[in-house]
Amino acid sequence: MRVIGGEFRSRRLKTPHGDSVRPTPDRLREALFNILAPRIEGAVFLDAYAGSGSVGIEALSRGARRAIFIEKSRPALRALEENIRMLDIASRCEVHAGSAAPLITRFDADIVFLDPPYPREREYQLCLEALGEQPRPLVIVQHASRFTSHLRDSYGKLRRVRILSQGDNSLSFYEPRP
After folding, report:
1. Which of 50, 95, 111, 144 is 20 to 30 Å from 32 by CA-CA measure?
2. pTM value?
C-alpha cells in the first residue's frame, strides 16, 4: 500500500496482517481523488472505518487541512497510528477508536468517506441514516458493486448524485438536497 499523489507521493503505508481490513485499491483511490481535486484543498476529511488510514492520508497528502479517522479494529489502529507517526502528521490528525455509526455525526467534516467491511451491511444504513439527519457537504460510500441496489438513492436530507464503479468496487456520492 502506498500514497498515490501529493505531498507523500510513493510513501509506503503499513497495513495490518490478516483479512480484517480491505484497503481501497490504488486505482479506485486515484479515481476518487481526481474527482475530489477541486474540493480537497483545505477540507476536513473524515475517514470512517479507516483501516490503515490510506484514504484519509491520501486526502492530507493532496491538501486536506485535517483528517479524522474512526476505526474499531486494534490491529488496524496500530497500523494507522504507525503511519501517522512515520509521516509526521499527528498535528493534522484525530484518531478515534470505536464503531463509526454512533460517532459519525460528532465531527464537522467537509467530506465523509465511509468504507465499512462489506459483510456488515447494517453499518451502511446506520451511518447514512445518521448523516441524512445531520448532512455533511459530501458523503462518499465505498461498497461492493453488487451492493449498489441495496443503498437507497436518498437518506433524510442526503441524495445520491453519482456512482463510480470499477470492477467489484463502487463509490456512491451523496450530497444534501438543494
Report:
1. 95
2. 0.94
